[in-house]
Design goal:
The chain is globular and about 65 Å long. It has about 650 residues and is an alpha+beta fold. The longest helix has about 30 residues. About 40% of the residues are buried. The chain has a 4-stranded antiparallel sheet. The chain is built from 21 helices and 19 strands. It has 2 domains: about 110 residues, no CATH class; about 400 residues, Cytochrome p450 (Orthogonal Bundle), CATH 1.10.630. Strand 1 and strand 2 form a beta hairpin. The protein is about 45% helix and about 15% strand. The chain binds protoporphyrin IX containing FE (HEM). The site of protoporphyrin IX containing FE has 26 residues, from helix 9, helix 16 and helix 21. Pfam families: p450.
Length: about 650
């Protein structure tokens, strides 16, 4: 169908095919049934006269309420809702189905509320214009601060194709930039600074061409989307096995080396099976809670280490020194923390105590691993424009560097994971085994598969958490008034110099606001990709199934349409209190993605960051160590253009 709809002559072929279908008795019967059902829906909707409001206590004890109501009339009957699984993402499944009574999406609104944010979706935003899109999911929304997804799932939705597809504008009519033979638009992108500035390039394309446009970058044509209701529509049509794009270089690498990979590289039922197992571990608050004390201990060691680093690095005036290796330090922190959760053991790359030889060796290994991961991201970003297949076939230097870094990173991660899996198995009595045991208990999982899943978890976790935190510290150093506000809030909860514990985190609304605000302005993944298995209409254009879609998070996160004073760092915009009940359009900032394929490490990352940020502010006051502002350089993820330095001053010394 994709091929047909793109050919001019194909129109006639489609007409013939449609005529044959129309002539078919089965098809006619289905069509009649559908119309009858729609008519019944319409009739029932007229009889509506009540309201639905459901409240759900999430496992984290955060109050999450989902309210579905009509702007012009009310929902007919009370609906029984129950969380379908003990862990999030939780589905609220209704047995009696209000969707049977909804015929005009513009009449409805959905509100999700937690103790932090209220998000309201009205009409099309909620329903993505197409209630009968073939998805069983009628409305989906993220519940912001609890880091979970609340979803309303309605049964009995007829599996129909989006009804307005044929009347929408053809795909080819979608705005696209002027391109030249052979080089396409590459020269313009080069003028922006190449793949390292793809986010700014696409941002300017959105300004020129609107919230949806298509462009062939390198080998692949992609539709870029920067509109919150379109984003929501994409997610609500992602189906049971959401599909995202894996960089071509990685696919080729896996193909030629025969290496099998983890969750990010899986698809279909294999992905679903493993993802469900991972959700039970990584998104379950009670399980994360078991490891928060270890996360906290790692932070203690990190801060002590930084304290001695800056103490030994004072300037000639005796001013506290700079922390110049922030990126590396944060990498170590993030890997060390994850290690305590997965293996129940410390990696040893943060503290500087007894067995120095062993520690130093480990630290070197981690450092090498970190360098390889960074190299990997740099080289695969370069191959966004250059077909990776070509680079591989001609064994270009970029490909060689990519291969070398990938081999090295996977080898290092693998040997570390193997060593720890073995240690945990050989000596089950010795201390905690981390979540390894739970992961091993998954059905039909063998050690080999587990190792590759864990290796990829480390790859996914280290860079993302450390860079998000690095940007947060950078923004806080440039906006010191927030350091003071946070200190005030932390002290009001734990007292002066009190010890921060897990139960305090929920009160640190401003710290949570800092994390959200940082990721709004500096989304670690500036684009999220999807390929849908069905045709949909976006922005009035036909989008055939399997089209590559890229959600431009960088653009929506800085769009004045969604954020007042969008370019400013204002963590309090996320804090919901009596004086601030503004509704946030959460689909305009989705740094962890949304729905069933969103980031599985979200809660872990958030808890780790909340500890680090609240505690660094208790201990230090910090200033920017760089004279200039620091821009973004994409290495697949959003990284600083030049190293960020911080000047840390111990509060106790002030
Ligand atoms: C601030 C930190 C982080 C950010 C901003 C982040 C962001 C993301 C994003 C945007 C995605 C893609 C979502 C989508 O396609 O809809 C993703 C996927 C993923 N993330 Fe994270 N992530 C972070 C931390 C972590 C951590 C700590 C872990 C591991 C514990 C992790 C493991 C993964 C995995 C395994 C996937 C693939 C999920 C799947 O395909 O089902 N991430 N992350």
């Amino acid at each position: 169908m994709v091929w047909l709809s793109r050919q001019p002559r194909a129109f006639y072929v489609q007409v013939i095919i449609l005529s044959v279908f129309l002539a078919s008795p089965t098809f006619r019967k289905q069509l009649t049934q559908t119309w009858c059902k729609l008519a019944q829906i319409h009739r029932t909707s007229k009889a509506c006269d009540q309201k639905l409001s459901t409240t759900l206590l999430s496992p984290s004890k955060a109050l999450v309420s989902l309210k579905l109501s009509s702007t012009s009339r009310a929902i007919p009957s009370t609906i029984q809702t129950k969380p379908s699984s003990p862990v999030f993402p939780t589905e609220l499944v209704t047995d009696s189905c209000p969707v049977n009574r909804i015929n005009d999406p513009s009449e409805w609104q959905l509100e999700t509320t937690d103790d932090f944010t209220t998000t309201r979706y009205v009409g099309d935003e909620m329903q993505s214009q197409c209630p009968f899109s073939g998805s069983k999911q009628f409305a989906q929304s993220s519940v912001n601060n609890s880091g979970m997804d609340g979803r309303l799932v309605y049964k009995d939705i007829p599996q129909l194709r989006c009804p307005n597809y044929s009347s929408a504008q053809p795909f080819e009519e979608m705005p696209t930039p002027k391109s030249y033979p052979v080089v396409g638009t590459t020269l313009t992108l080069m003028a922006f600074g190449g793949a390292a500035h793809l986010h700014e390039y696409c941002d300017s394309r959105h300004k020129e061409l609107g919230p949806i446009y298509r462009e062939k970058l390198g080998p692949t044509e992609c539709v870029f989307i920067a509109d919150s209701s379109m984003v929501q529509k994409v997610y609500s049509n992602e189906g049971r096995f959401p599909n995202h794009m894996v960089p071509e270089a990685w696919t080729i690498y896996n193909e030629i080396t025969g290496v099998k990979r983890g969750l990010f590289f899986m698809d279909g039922p294999e992905w679903e099976r493993r993802r469900k197992g991972m959700n039970k571990v990584f998104l379950a608050q009670p399980i994360i809670s078991e490891y928060t004390e270890s996360f906290n201990e790692v932070v203690t060691d990190v801060l002590n280490k930084w304290s001695s680093l800056v103490e030994s690095n004072k300037d000639e005036n005796g001013r506290s020194g700079l922390l110049t290796q922030l990126e590396r330090e944060l990498y170590n922190w993030s890997i060390e923390s994850l290690s305590t959760m997965i293996f129940g053991r410390r990696l040893g790359c943060v503290e500087t105590s007894h067995d120095l030889r062993y520690k130093t060796h480990k630290m070197d290994q981690v450092h090498l691993f970190v360098q390889c991961v960074q190299q990997l991201f740099v080289e695969s970003a370069k191959m966004t424009l250059l077909p990776a297949r070509l680079a591989q076939r001609f064994n270009l230097p970029v490909w060689q560097r990519f291969m070398e870094a990938a081999d090295q990173a996977l080898r290092l991660a693998r040997s570390y994971v193997e060593e720890n899996v073995k240690a945990a198995q050989d000596d089950p009595e010795n201390g905690s085994r981390g979540v390894l045991e739970m992961l091993l208990a998954q059905p039909q999982i063998d050690q080999e598969e587990l190792i590759r899943i864990i290796v990829d978890l480390f790859l996914a976790a280290a860079d993302t958490t450390s860079h998000a935190t690095q940007w947060a510290l950078y923004l806080l150093s440039k906006n010191p008034e927030y350091q003071e506000k946070i200190l005030k809030q932390v002290e009001s909860v734990v007292g002066k110099n009190g010890t921060v514990r897990e139960e305090h985190l929920k009160h640190f609304t401003l710290v949570k606001g800092v994390i959200k605000e940082t990721l709004r302005l500096y989304p670690v993944a500036p684009f999220i990709s999807r390929k849908l298995d069905r045709d949909i209409v976006l922005g009035g254009y036909q989008i055939p199934a399997n089209t590559l879609l890229a959600i431009s998070l960088y653009t929506t996160g800085r769009d004045e349409k969604y954020w007042t004073d969008a370019k400013s760092f204002k963590p309090e915009r996320w804090v919901r209190e009596e004086s601030n009940k503004k509704i946030i359009n959460s689909h305009a900032s989705l740094p962890f993605g949304l729905g069933i394929r969103s980031c599985v490490g979200r809660r872990v990352a958030e808890v780790q960051m909340q500890f680090l940020l609240s505690r660094i502010i208790q201990k230090f006051y910090f200033e920017p160590g760089n004279k200039e502002d620091i821009g973004i350089k994409l290495r697949m993820i959003t990284t600083p253009e030049s190293p960020i330095h911080l000047r840390l001053v111990e509060r106790s010394a002030v």
